Amino acid sequence: MAGNRIRDERVAKLAALRAVGVEPYGEKVERTATIREVRGLCLEDGTEGAQPPVTTVAGRVTAARNMGKSCWLDLRDQSGRIQVNLLQKRLGDDYNLVKQLDIGDFIAATGSLMKSRVGEITVFADSFRFLSKSLEPLPAKFKGLKDVEIRYRRRYLDMVASDEVRERFILRSRIIGFVRRRLDELGFLEVETPMLQPIYGGAAARPFITHHNALDMDLFLRISPETYLKRLLVGGIDRVYELNRNFRNEGIDTSHNPEFTMIELYQAYADFTDMMTLLENLVSDAAQTLLGTTKIRFAGHEVDVKAPWPRRRIQDLVREVGGTDPGNADAMRGRLAKAGLDCGKLAHLDIDKLVMKIMDEIIEPQLIQPTIVTHHPASLNPLSKRNRENPALSDRFEAIVCGFELSNAFSELNDPLEQRARFESQVGSRDEESYCDQVDDDYVSALEVGMPPAGGMGIGIDRLVMLLTGQPGIREVVLFPTLKAKSKEEVEREMEALTDGE
Q1: What is the rounded CA–CA span in Å between residue 266 and residue 34?
Q2: What share of the chain in percent tops pLDDT 70?
Q3: What CATH number labels 2-132?
Q4: Which of 262, 368, 412, 442 has the most CB within a 10 Å radius?
């Protein structure tokens, strides 16, 4: 196999280096600066009497042009690329080490920083040393990584092969940093709550289950931190948020990964309308600050996230976009059947669930521009306050952008007696879409101590990054998405494609 042959050749080079006393995996390097900063130090042509600066750069070799007694390298770090010249006349006997050099190796080089005859900023090295010997070849530059399985399974190769991929994940970090800074500026306190929970709740989702041996008890990886964060409102923290991982034991598609990043926040003395304003300003300002525009290209559409966003009641959308009557169960079943859904699976759905099914299957994919959809059925939202004008509805909204849910928010229910009754009703129904499978007595006890009226909101960070980077698939914005396990042999066959033609 080509891959084994290439690896064997590189292992032999590693041994050859050690045989002459050179350590292929070197120590700390005192760099002059990043490569981008070093490029800025280069003197302009025509400078009289000035000595070129001596600089030390370090990075990965991504290209090599060996011309016998001279070797030209491209060296990259996170900040950029620079050319390095290794010349036998300058390096003396150390030039013999060049024959052990491969694309993918990390090296450090020290020398004069000048422009070459063709104007390329170059480090003319007086010395170089190995920092890390690469035993596997990099993807061919002209081919890149085309196999998505390899891209996701070996994200490090994906990032080496594509500057765009690497920059996308740098932008992800900046988006998260912006969200944190904005909430901190607004007086929210960041906290950490349990990821292992004795009772799961806060969303309608199937949890992952594990077992704690010392306590001999089952625990759940959390599907939401909601009830713990609201306990902190009870404890006197008026504005609180957590940005961390949630886990849901459900399917995988373009907008779902079993392990995902969310931010949940709660603000005392507020309601869901305050959350609307907070959300649209947060997203709009993030886009303007980080991208320089609020207009984003996404799956062939130009999406403008500039605040404010339109507010639409879900019942109106069922009529106007869904083309059916939200008060007529038979009409909604007929509309869903016309859209290709299995009629047998619709028969047991009550009118509220049919409204949500119309929303999920027909309306949501058509909402490309940011839209705040309000007043969902109260029966399906046990943690939300009922609407005072129409108690059959809840003071809840979902923000839909580019056909997916970006955010979910409530005016939070703070009546402990009603909360207990809703929990008991859900547990009794044994409905797979319930928010819990047992009453969370401790949470109800916290509400009995007294929780101020509050607005609460969850924002899918992965989906926010999808939006701001124009990526229609969640796996493109998650560094290491969940994948089906493969055997060693299958992975080796995948990787074989990377070495074809070497």
Answers
A1: 41
A2: 93
A3: 2.40.50.140
A4: 412
